[in-house]
Amino acid sequence: MILPLTTSRFPGLTAPRRISGPTHFPGSRATGIWLCVLSLALFGGTGREAFGAPPHVEIQNVRIGLGAGNAYKVGCWTPVRVQLKAGDQRLSGFMELVVPDDDGVPTSYRQRVELGPGQSTRLTAYARPGGCDTVFTIRLLDGQGRRLLEAPQSLTMPAPPEVIMPDEMLILTLGQPLGVDQLPTLPGFTLGGKGQTGPGESEVVLARVDPESDQIPGQWYGFDAAQAIVIDTDDRASLEVLAGLRGQSLVEWVKHGGHLVVAVGANWQAVRDSVLGPILPAQPAGQEQVPSLEALDTFAGSTKPITPAGTPPVLVTRLEAAEERGGKILSIMGNLPLIVRGPHGFGRVTLIGVGVEQKIFGDWTDRGLFWARAMDLRHDRPEQAGSGTRVGVPGRFYQSGVSDLASQLRIGLEQFPGVKLIPFGWVAFFIFLYILLIGPGDYLFLKKVLKRMELTWITFPTIVLTVSLLAYFAAYRLKGNDLLVNKVDVIDVDQVAGLVRGRTLLSLFSPQNRDYNIGFVPVPPNLDHDVAPLASPSPSGEPVRPPAGTELLTSWFSVPEAQFGAMGGANRRFSFVASGYTYEPTGLLERLENVRVPIWSTKAVTARWLGPGPAAPLVDADLRPIGTDRLAGTITNRQSFPLEDALLAFGKEVYSLGTLAPEATVKVELTGNRNLAGLLRDRAPEYLSDQPWNRNRKISRADLLLAIMFHGSESTRGSEQSLSNVALHDLDLTAQLALDRPMLVAKIKRPGAQLVLENPPSPPRIDQTTMIRIILPLKRSHGDGRFAAAGLPPATSVAAGSTAQR
Predict the structure, then answer these.
(1) Above pLDDT 70, what percent of the chain?
(2) N or C terminus: which one in the chain shows less Cβ crowding within 10 Å?
(3) Quick check: 715 pLDDT over 70?
(4) Is residue 58 packed enough to be buried (19+ CB in 10 Å), middle (13-18) or exposed (0-12)?
(5) What are the residues whose beta carbons fall under 8 Å from the beta carbon of 180, sequence distance 6 or more?
(6) What stretches of 132-256 show up as alpha helix (H) in DSSP?
(7) Crossing angle (nearest 10°) for helices 676-683 and 701-709
(8) Do 608 and 572 form a contact (C-beta atoms < 8 A)?
(9) Who's near 238: CB < 8 A, 6+ residues apart?
(10) pLDDT value for 45
(11) CA 150 from chain center: how many Å?
(12) CA separation for the pair 167, 378 (Å, rounded)
């Protein structure tokens, strides 16, 4: 037997000793001769390669996540930086980062490695840990995929990394923004990062990114764990580190849906000329003195003034062109905006025109309240987190074990037509009967009836074989022999910025033990022909790739609760799957290869993509505001397919437009409008059952997706029927509604992305649900009074201006 060769400078990782001299086998001399001949026949041509020493390589350092210490957030993409040094031979191959998913199955991310003799380099790989006890393993492979080295976490990192739970909020800071550390002391919040969560309070984890330690990831999903990122641009090192690709990755993170908070002080000109300049909702244009910052007291809801009487004048940054850049003024002092927030893609940028390194910030008692408002942090933790929230109507509660909307969606995705799930109670009951049958039953039958105990050699295997056959045919009858897929797509189209974003979630039910290759191909939303949910194989046999200019991330999908099969618990659990699967192609995350799905079980998968929007608008919109929260104008469907159950959301209101047929036009002011939170509350029974015995009824996936897409409305806070939205928070664009961006939401009968499924036992039956959300332009006029609703006095409404979408 030829042993695999591994080597490392870590203790315990050494190459196996070479075999020298003859090997003696027990038995006759002839047997030994025949074994030697057989060994030469099998390995004669490869013996020198097999026993040759592999290139020597050293793993010098491993760092996980962002911030000073090693930390990762469960269920989020995490950068892992590995320092490698080659020995006296050239190393040409791959580095593989292996972590378990939510089921404990190993997943592999592969990165190319090219090192000359003695050369050292730092590689950044990306992992998505599936549990709170994740072990990070690093492998080095040669060009043919043969393993050269395997370094477990116990050797590369003696102290295990810190764990951030899925429902904890990670706040990243660059620079020295004073007062951010006060967030965990606010009512409704507490300090997290303990590897567990408690009921009621939202837990906050703070991490400062050291600009000197090369911690900024080169890919946007390296920031996936962050709830918000705060940059103090008066810290020049923090601004300089964002030059180049690292700054662009931060901009891309915002475009995908992130929230960036930028404080600009004396360094305003460098900020304007940096990579952040084009995405700011207003333009820094110098500094002026103001007598006080009392406008910040109003913004934060503070009872302790930031500039008490006698405080000398304060320098603030003049923020201009907010209207042209689509910014909404949140706080203004005289005619100087102090805080402006605006959209960038599907994310937001909040610009603060005050240097937050100043002593007045450090001395301000309510500085924590200011930052909570600036980051738009919300208390979103069910009172019974960790054990399931109460779901139902007032006076009728029960423990459902579900605390998050993603968990309810997972249940809906596992409702396959024709597949009957046997309750665990019945399974336990039949196991108990089986034990009675092969134990006391068999004994009493032989002793009392047949009175021949030796016949157990016949009765025992007969009972086992009979029960096994009955169990198999019963399962076959209940679960069938069809490959089934339940799939939902959410398509977001920003007609103003020309972007398309999508999210796919599916559950695959396999009738056989099978290894699948799973991928997706995003579909342009303006195609004028029908699209099949399943993509056709490539004629060349090459894997199907997404369209040019579209970035795609594919991974597993799970739920955040701390229970079996969820992210909140441990993932070192028993699994029927022996081998893992791989993210492909090398260095990317477009598809999953060799995903083993056991017979009559399911695997949940998700994908996210972003690309350029269609050249022509999907709908023609001529909308203008009336008063503070109403709309007037027309919407015309320019697509060849109908928009079913169309809703137009604006601010806190929603208009029911019904079904918009192709080329149909509707006048918005002639349709009925109501509160968005009330509509979501009324539709909750379509996906939540208030009776424990009725949990298996059909879940309306469209209504559930609508609740996820606008979870931040008032209905999600203080309601007994509300669930959190941790796992799918990126789909919630309620914060964009607060920036006065009208959105048309509808159900359509075509996929947002085609499924690419290789090695299926039969063509899959796909049950597709697709929701599309279109961000529309809005015509505005000066002095429309809409800023008065945001707390600005009427005299400053015109000075603040009405924002215009880019």
Answers:
(1) 82
(2) N
(3) no
(4) middle
(5) 171, 173, 206, 230, 371
(6) 153-156, 236-240, 245-256
(7) 150
(8) no
(9) 174, 175, 209, 211, 231, 232
(10) 40
(11) 28
(12) 12
Nearest partner of 514 among 603, 606, 591, 584, judged by Cα: 603
Angle at 286 between CA 280 and CA 287, to 5 degrees: 110
3-state SS of 47-77? HHHHHCCCCCEEEEEEEECCCCCCEEECCCC
> Cα(150)–Cα(441) distance, rounded to whole angstroms?
51
Write out pLDDT tens, residues 769-795: 999 999 999 987 654 433 433 444 333
Q: Look up residue 526 and give its DSSP letter.
A: T
Torsion of CA 507, 511, 514, 516, to 10 degrees: -30
Task: Pick the range with the lowest mean pLDDT from 70-84, 583-597, 679-693.
Answer: 679-693
Residue 768: CB atoms within 10 Å: 20
pLDDT of 197 reads 65
- Higher-confidence residue of 385 and 630: namely 630
Segment holding 471, helix H or strand E: helix 456-479
- β-partners of residue 633 are 623
Query: What is the C-alpha separation between 341 and 346, in angstroms, rounded?
Result: 13
Cα distance between residue 802 and residue 786, in whole Å: 8
User: What's the pLDDT score for residue 803?
Assistant: 32
CA distance 221 to 208: 18
- CA–CA distances in Å: residue 138 to residues 81, 310, 590: 11, 60, 21
Q: Are 769 and 487 in contact (CB under 8 A)?
A: yes
558-604 pLDDT, tens digit each? 998 877 678 877 655 545 555 799 999 999 999 999 999 998 889 99
Over residues 535-546, mean pLDDT:
86
Q: Which two tokens stand for residue 148?
A: 């050269």
pLDDT, the chain, mean: 83
pTM of the model: 0.85
pLDDT at 572: 54
Helix, strand, or coil (residue 715):
helix
H helix runs in 153-221, sequence order: 153-156
What the block records as the tokens of 166 is 């899925």
Model confidence over 434-458: pLDDT tens digits?
888 888 888 888 888 888 888 888 8
656-679 pLDDT, tens digit per residue, is 999 999 999 999 999 989 999 999
Query: Contact 341/348 with Cβ under 8 angstroms?
Result: yes
* pLDDT tens track for 519-533: 999 999 887 778 999
- Rounded to 5°, the CA angle 133-135-139 comes to 170
> Please, are residues 612 and 500 in contact by the beta-carbon 8 Å criterion?
yes
Structure confidence by residue, pLDDT tens digits, 37-72 = 444 444 444 333 333 445 578 888 899 998 777 899
Whose tokens are 């007291």? That residue is 297
Q: Is 500 helix (H, G, I), strand (E, B) or coil?
A: strand
Q: Do residues 568 and 166 touch, judged by C-beta distance below 8 A?
A: yes
**Long-range contacts of range 360-364, CB-CB < 8 Å, 24 or more positions apart?**
360/293, 360/306, 360/307, 360/311, 360/314, 361/177, 361/178, 361/179, 361/306, 362/178, 362/179, 364/179, 364/302, 364/304, 364/306
184-191 own/partner pairs: CB under 8 Å, 24+ apart? 185/368, 186/368, 186/369, 186/372, 188/379, 189/372, 189/377, 189/379
Query: What are the structure tokens assigned to 669, written together?
Result: 């002011």
The answer to whether the CB of 560 falls within 8 A of the CB of 727 is yes
